[in-house]
Specification:
The protein contains 7 helices and 26 strands. The protein is of the alpha+beta class.
Length: about 475
């Protein structure tokens, strides 16, 4: 009885307590539902990524066409100084001609620019823009910005088109193109055997363009240019060229005030050049050897040095005097200091070294006033043979004939003696960031001549005398 009573009393209490306990439901069904949802999401993402990847590969390989107006990733800069300027030249207002040219460029490539395009395709034709276009000296010339696309990658090329004056768009042919980069100047020269040619230069708006013929080195030690360019609007120069070959390539200078955008030779020949074995060269080489100090040069090296000096200065063989002031060895190779001078003009000193195995290098170009040039000591900073040929700190010094001694003044330090050998050549050391001046004295102690040691000329694309590093007359050297 006691047990039955206990059971009857506890059962309701136990049942009530059991109902009060919060027993969690089985977690597996919820986990299974969530995992199925995640699997579906991953499958969708994988499919989308695969589809996008296939599309990108198709677009990038130009299998899947992309509209020309679609945005892309620019991979090369284009000269903004040219693109941001308004179109220049008489053709800028000929909308019908430009529309026809755009259509032909975008559909039928009037110039066969396959080498330019390669895997690239011409983009949106509406973005083809005229930079410059005009009729000059019997020729029609147009410089056009052409958008290019390779899948998602884009770039812009500047392409020249040329034709006869008044040519239709169908008559225009390929003339050249830019290789990319941000050079703000475009040049084109075309010369034809027996026909008149032309040269055209397009620079930034408000710049001044000169195209020089033969230069003139004045007796006072400056270089002057005979400008053969005719301005065709601001920042454009056009020059008519004779049917016979030019003796040298013209020199182009594009500047605005003191800022020089471009200065260098204008390629596109042919040029008459120099005959290294001709009678004129024979006469120059023979005269150049007398008098000469130091180790004599062999005929091949001497001819190379003389020819290099004439080509660099753009002076003709006839009427020019060449003198070897010193010859010896530099970096184990033949070396020389020589001067070239056109009758009545300034004197240009050239220091060179090299041979036919390793090539030749120009170590110095220095335009001097004609008065007293022979009495000046000449020095140049010796450079290494590696890469960009940085200066070593050594200065090679050549004394003038009759000099008993040479001193060098570095910065504000007192003059120091330069030890000379039997050929009147010596060397000393000068920190590359300090100016230095050489002074030569005669036996009676009087000054023969004084010459600054110029800094290393980093860019030799212009003519001697163009830069402060290649002249002794000017705002920086005296």
């Amino acid at each position: 009885m006691t047990g039955n009573f206990a059971n009857s009393t506890l059962s309701p209490a136990l049942r009530e307590a059991a109902h009060a306990v919060d027993v969690p439901e089985d977690p597996w069904p919820g986990f299974a539902r969530r995992e199925r949802r995640h699997q579906r999401t991953r499958l969708i993402r994988t499919a989308l990524v695969a589809a996008v990847g296939v599309a990108l590969v198709g677009v990038q390989t130009n299998v899947v066409p992309l509209p020309g107006w679609a945005p892309g990733i620019a991979v090369a800069s284009t000269p903004t100084a040219l693109l941001d300027a308004a179109p220049r030249g008489a053709l800028a207002g000929d909308r019908a001609w430009l529309d026809t040219l755009r259509t032909r460029i975008s559909t039928d490539s009037p110039v066969r620019i396959d080498a330019l395009l390669g895997a690239w395709k011409i983009g949106d034709r509406d973005r083809i823009r005229l930079i410059y276009g005009s009729d000059q000296a019997g020729h029609r010339v147009a410089l056009v910005a052409v958008p290019l696309r390779f899948g998602l990658l884009t770039r812009e090329a500047l392409v020249w088109y040329v034709g006869p004056a008044g040519a239709s768009a169908q008559q225009m042919r390929y003339g050249g193109h830019s290789e990319g980069g941000d050079d703000p100047v475009m040049t084109l020269m075309q010369a034809y055997p027996g026909q008149a040619g032309f040269a055209v230069v397009v620079g930034p708006a408000e710049s001044t363009v000169t195209i020089s013929g033969d230069p003139r080195y004045t007796a006072r030690g400056t270089v002057e240019y005979q400008d053969i360019a005719t301005a065709d609007g601001v920042g454009v120069g056009f020059a008519a060229l004779p049917p016979e070959p030019l003796p040298h390539e013209p020199v182009v200078r594009v500047s605005r005030g003191d800022q020089v955008f471009f200065q260098g030779g204008l390629g596109g020949g042919p040029y008459a050049g120099l005959d290294p074995t001709g009678p004129e060269m024979d006469a120059l080489v023979t005269a150049a050897r007398r008098p000469a100090r130091g180790t004599p040069l062999d005929d091949a090296n001497l001819r190379t040095f003389v020819q290099t000096a004439l080509q660099d200065s753009r002076l003709p063989a006839v009427g020019t005097t060449v003198r070897v002031r010193w010859s010896g060895r530099e970096h184990g190779q033949a070396a020389a200091l020589l001067t070239v001078q056109r009758a009545g003009g300034g004197v240009i000193a050239y220091a060179m070294h090299g041979d036919d195995r390793t090539g030749w290098s120009t170590d110095l170009r220095l335009l001097l006033p004609s008065e007293g040039a022979e009495q000046r000591p000449i020095g140049w900073r010796v450079r290494t043979e590696d890469g960009a040929r940085p200066p070593t700190g050594e200065v090679r010094v050549i004394a003038p004939p009759g000099a008993a001694r040479v001193t060098i003044t570095v910065g504000g330090a007192p003059p120091a003696m330069v030890t000379l050998d039997a050929s009147n050549a010596g060397s000393t050391r000068v920190p590359q960031d300090l100016p230095a001046t050489l002074t030569a004295y005669s036996r009676d102690g009087s000054v023969l001549g004084t010459t600054p040691v110029p800094p290393v000329e980093a860019d030799m694309s212009g003519l001697p005398g163009d830069s402060p590093a290649s002249r002794v007359v000017g705002p920086h050297l005296r």
